[in-house]
Design brief:
Number of strands: 12
Strand order of the largest sheet: 2-1-3-4-5-6
Order of helices and strands: EHEHEEHEEHEHEHEHEHEEHHHH
Structural class: alpha/beta
Number of helices: 12
C-alpha cells in the first residue's frame, strides 16, 4: 500500500548509497533491509556515506567529486532507527528513501519523511493518518544473518516434544506479562515457561523485582540471563504451539520473523495492531487469544486471561488446524517476509515512483 502517490513504470536501480550512522544500533536496525536490497538487485552498486565523524568536510568534498554525487545529499541530522538512502535509477534519476525501523507507530523522523520521496515505516498502524509517501514495511530482524536463516529453516521438521513453549522478557507491559504467565501456568500438558527479567531495567527495577517474586511464588521459572538464540529457536521449534506476545508499543517483535521462518504454529495474544504490506491474517497465518489490551500496553480485562487455557486447549486438540497454520506461516515468510522478498518490495515501490522532472531533464 502506498498512500497519495500514483504508480508508474521507471528504469531499474543502478546504485544505492546508504547514509552510514556512527551509532551501531542504527546500523543494526537497518541490516535486514540492506541484505534484502543486495539480494534483490545484486547487480547494483552499494556504498555508504559517513554522516558525522572527524574530517567529515574533507570526506564530503571528496564525495562530491565522485561521479554524480553532487546530488547525493542527505537529511541531517537523522533520528535513531531511521536509515537514509539515495537511490540512482539507470536513467540517471536520483530518489531519496528512508526506512523507519522503530517500534512505535508514530513517525520516528518527521524531517526525514519531508525529505524522502518514499518513507517506509515498520510497525505501520493503518488507523494512523500518515502523510503521503509513507508505506508499511516488515519489521526486519537485524540479528538474522544468512547462517541464522538457514538454521531457522532447518528447524521446520523438528520433532514436537512440548505442547507450548513461552520464553519471554517481562517488558512491554509488566503486569500484562505476569497475567499471561499465570494463565499459561494453568494449561495442562507439557508446557515450558520462562520469564526473562531484563538486566538493564532502569526506572522499572523495583516493579520487575516484585514481578519476579510473584511469578516464582506461582511456580514460574525466572532468569536474568538471556537464553542463547540458537537454544531458544530449538526449544520453540519443538513446540506444537508457540505464543508470541506483542512487543514494546504493541509492535510486532523481531521474533515474529523467527517463528514464521521456522514454520511455527503461531499464537498471538491479539490481532496485531501494525500491518505489514501483505497483512498477516488471523486463522490463516496465526491463531489469536483476542486479548483486549489498551494502546498504553496495560493489561487486558481479567476475563480475557481466564479464557486462555480453554482457547489453547482447543487448538492443541485440532491437529489439522495446527498443521495448516504452520504451513501458512512458512509460506508467508518465503513469499513476503524473508530478506529477498522485502528487498523486492522495496525495489518495486522505489521504481514505481512517478518521474516529476521536466521533460527536458529526462
Amino acid at each position: 500500500m502506498l498512500r497519495g502517490k500514483q504508480v508508474s513504470r521507471t528504469a531499474s536501480i543502478r546504485r544505492v548509497v546508504a547514509r552510514r550512522s556512527t551509532e551501531f544500533e542504527d546500523e543494526y536496525y537497518q541490516n535486514y533491509y540492506r541484505r534484502g536490497l543486495r539480494a534483490a538487485i545484486p547487480e547494483a552498486c552499494f556504498s555508504s556515506f559517513p554522516s558525522t565523524s572527524r574530517g567529515v568536510r574533507s570526506l564530503q568534498r571528496r564525495w562530491r567529486r565522485w561521479r554524480g554525487e553532487e546530488r547525493a545529499g542527505f537529511a541531517f541530522p537523522a533520528a535513531a532507527h531511521v536509515g537514509q538512502y539515495r537511490v540512482e535509477l539507470r536513467n540517471g534519476r536520483w530518489l531519496k528513501v528512508a526506512i523507519d525501523a522503530h517500534d512505535a507507530p508514530v513517525l520516528r523522523d518527521p524531517g526525514a519523511a519531508d525529505w524522502a520521496d518514499l518513507y517506509f515505516k515498520s510497525n505501520f498502524w493503518p488507523e494512523y493518518n500518515y502523510p503521503p509517501g509513507v508505506a508499511p514495511i516488515v519489521n526486519g530482524n537485524g540479528e538474522l544473518s544468512p547462517e541464522n536463516l538457514r538454521e531457522l529453516r532447518s528447524l521446520r521438521t523438528r520433532e514436537k516434544t512440548h505442547d507450548l513453549v513461552f520464553v519471554s522478557r517481562l517488558w512491554g507491559g509488566i503486569e500484562h506479562n505476569c497475567r499471561l504467565f499465570e494463565a499459561l501456568r494453568k494449561l495442562p500438558g507439557k508446557v515450558r515457561l520462562l520469564a526473562v527479567i531484563p538486566a538493564e531495567s532502569g526506572t522499572y527495577g523495583r516493579e520487575l523485582e516484585r514481578a519476579a517474586i510473584r511469578l516464582e511464588k506461582a511456580g514460574i521459572p525466572c532468569t536474568r540471563k538471556l537464553v542463547p538464540k540458537t537454544q531458544l529457536w530449538r526449544e520453540l521449534a519443538a513446540s506444537r504451539l508457540v505464543l508470541l506476545r506483542a512487543g514494546k508499543h504493541l509492535c510486532l517483535p523481531w521474533r515474529t520473523l523467527d517463528l514464521l521462518a521456522m514454520g511455527s504454529c503461531l499464537v498471538m495474544e491479539a490481532d496485531p495492531r501494525p500491518q505489514w504490506p501483505t497483512p498477516l491474517e488471523k486463522n490463516v497465518h496465526f491463531a489469536s487469544l483476542d486479548l483486549r489490551r489498551p494502546e498504553d500496553t496495560g493489561p487486558a480485562p481479567a476475563e480475557d486471561y481466564e479464557a486462555i487455557p480453554d482457547r489453547l486447549g482447543a487448538l492443541l486438540e485440532n491437529a489439522t488446524q495446527r498443521t495448516s497454520l504452520a504451513a501458512a506461516a512458512q509460506y508467508y515468510f518465503e513469499e513476503y517476509a524473508c530478506p529477498e522478498a522485502v528487498g523486492r518490495y522495496l525495489c518495486t515501490l522505489i521504481q514505481s515512483l512517478p518521474d516529476s522532472r521536466p521533460d527536458h531533464e529526462h
